[in-house]
Design brief:
Elements (H helix, E strand, L loop, with lengths): L5 E6 L2 E6 L10 H15 L6 E6 L4 E3 L4 H9 L4 H18 L4 E5 L2 E3 L1 H4 L6 E4 L4 E3 L13 H6 L5 H8 L5 H6 L5 E2 L5 H8 L5 H9 L14 H8 L4 H10 L3 H11 L3 H16 L3 H16 L2 H12 L17 H6 L16
Helix pairs in contact: 1-3, 2-15, 3-14, 6-13, 10-11, 11-12, 13-14
Amino acid sequence: MTDDTVLLHTEGRILHITLNRPRALNALTHAMVGRVDEGLTAAEGDDAVVAVLISGSGDRGLCAGGDIRSIHDDARAGGRASLAFWRDEYHLNARIARFPKPYVAFMDGIVMGGGVGVSAHGDVRIVTERSRVAMPETGIGFVPDVGGTHLLAMAPGELGTHLALTGQAVGAADAVLCGLADHFVASERLPGLAAELAGCARPDDVTATVLRYVSEAPEAELATHRAWIDACYAADTVEEIIDRLNGSGVTAAKETAETLLAKSPTALKVTLAAVRRARRLDSLEAALDQEYRVSSRAFTAPDLVEGVRAQIIDKDRDPRWHPAALADVTHAEVARYFVPLGDQELGLGAPE
């Protein structure tokens, strides 16, 4: 049977890559990652193709992330298929960032986790009034990956730290503010933009065409909270961040503290370390190498299986984290997530 979970077709001089699992919100599988990579290989070698455009089928979003259920089942069974999936997915993320032709992403609707990985590393990243962009991994006992720590580390001030720890979904203006997207285009205009892109004769025509469709996004909400976000998240530890949030006198900050306390304590501490370390790394590839180490360790830790169970499988929204308290997650345990993997390293960046 033909795998139609990713559709590849050419219109004019644009190769369209369409993620096609609408009932699963276009969640990525290993086979889909391979198919997208095949599309990029075809586009790179075809002089008739000027640019690539990625979008999602259905009307709910580009991609809700990886296939979390299959990762949960693999982890419970003690398998290793998820590690192979992440290896190829992270290689794809790096390839998108370095792709030699314009890579346009329609980030319409829900764009989370792996959906960010196949869009936010592109050249022309378009959000709409329906966009909800997030890296929500701490809520399932995991950590931001697919180059997410690299992107969030470069966000202004401590906005990226806030998004990484809380998993908060943001709209179009905030996605642009945080460097996760470039342009706002009303969703009703996307079909017209896609049709006009088909007529582009040169790579330079792509950006010029997009700019004719761009309008001003609604006001960025995070900008109004920047003062307390920057002040609170500048702290060195998750515990101190929560103390500052509670002591800020700002209602939204106190609510954020409650949000953080519901997340996996281990995931919070490892995520904070990952974003801080990513700021000191010199490339996306180096960040992806780091993320693969962290993902590999998180895969065998109890919180990932428990988090997916609570949020996705049983949906009781009552995860029992282990350890259950931030104070019980030691510096040594956090450091363990970042130890190189020897001959299992991803190997995208410079060797350590």
